[in-house]
Amino acid sequence: MIVTLAGMLLAVAFVAFAAIVGGVDRRHRDLAEHNLAQQSSMLQSVLNSLGQGVLVADETGSLTLVNARADRSLGIGPGPRNSSNWGPQFELLMADGVTPYALEDSPLSLALRGQSTDNVRVLARRAGVPDGVWTSVTGRPLHGEDGPNGGVVVFSDVSEQRRSELELQAAHDRTAEALNGRAACPGQRHAQQAGRAAAIVPQPE
Predict the structure, then answer these.
(1) Contact (Cβ atoms closer than 8 angstroms) between residue 76 and residue 89
(2) For labelling alongside 30, which of 15, 75, 99, 169 has CA 20 to 30 A away?
(3) Cα–Cα distance for residue pair 93/20, rounded to 1 Å
(4) Are residues 164 and 151 in the same domain?
(5) b/e 44-56 (16+ beta carbons within 10 angstroms → b)
(6) pLDDT given at position 199
(7) For residue 168, how many C-alpha atoms fall within 13 Å in the half-sphere facing its CB?
(8) How far apart are CA 62 and CA 76, in angstroms?
(9) What is the DSSP string of the chain?
(10) Are residues 99 and 127 in the same domain?
(11) Buried b (16+ CB within 10 A) or exposed e, 115-142
(12) Torsion sign (Cα): 90, 92, 98, 103
């Protein structure tokens, strides 16, 4: 096999060109990955600065994003979590503060099924916080190019507002009971007076 100088130079040039192209591709890839990491970090920073809790789940129900406020309020903590595994001592209760939410009826589950919710009152109770955290939850489904691919819920801590509502309701109930008691007094006095009158009036033999 005869190798000409021109052939050798062509082979060297091809290898050099491939190395250059490969280097450019790697630099572009590294730059793209760096930019993506920066954007992800910025997004997480923005979400962590919010006063509302944010939870994002993929189509399987696994939480893919939990901001700092949600973690502080709900105590979800690190590790994989999905709509059926939020910790053994974590529960969601309805607006009455007693009835547990069925898994399929929670705002996040509804969002994963394509349904929106607005300002739903939810009591989140967990170990160490027996009174729980009252929240107002808004949920929305997430859509990708191929259709629904997850859900997001945003919630505010309304514990102080809820306590004020309960105190106002208790005061209203006490006032109503007092008014009902006063309304019954005239009738009671009349019965007492009639009883005394009957006692002093001679009865026919």
Answers:
(1) no
(2) 15
(3) 61
(4) no
(5) eeebeeeebbbbb
(6) 46
(7) 6
(8) 12
(9) ----HHHHHHHHHHHHHHHHHHHHHHHHHHHHHHHHHHHHHHHHHHHHT-SSEEEEEETTSBEEEE-HHHHHHH---SS--BTTBS-TTEEEE-TTSSSBPPGGGSHHHHHHTT--EEEEEEEEEETTEEEEEEEEEEEEEEEETTEEEEEEEEEEE-HHHHHHHHHHHHHHHHHHHHHHHHHHHHHHHHHHHHHHHHHHSPPP-
(10) yes
(11) eebeebebbbbbeeeeebbbbbbbbbbb
(12) negative
Which domain CATH number covers 139? 3.30.450.20
The pTM score is: 0.62
| Overall domain count for the chain | 2
Say what the pLDDT of residue 144 is: 81
The closest alpha carbon to 64, from 34, 36, 38, 40, belongs to 40
| pLDDT value for 1 | 46
Q: Are 101 and 92 in contact (CB under 8 A)?
A: yes
Within this chain, do residues 173 and 142 fall inside the same structural domain, yes or no? no
Q: Is residue 84 part of a domain?
A: yes
The boundaries of the domain holding residue 190 are 159-196
Which residues of the chain carry a pLDDT beneath 50? 1-3, 88, 197-202
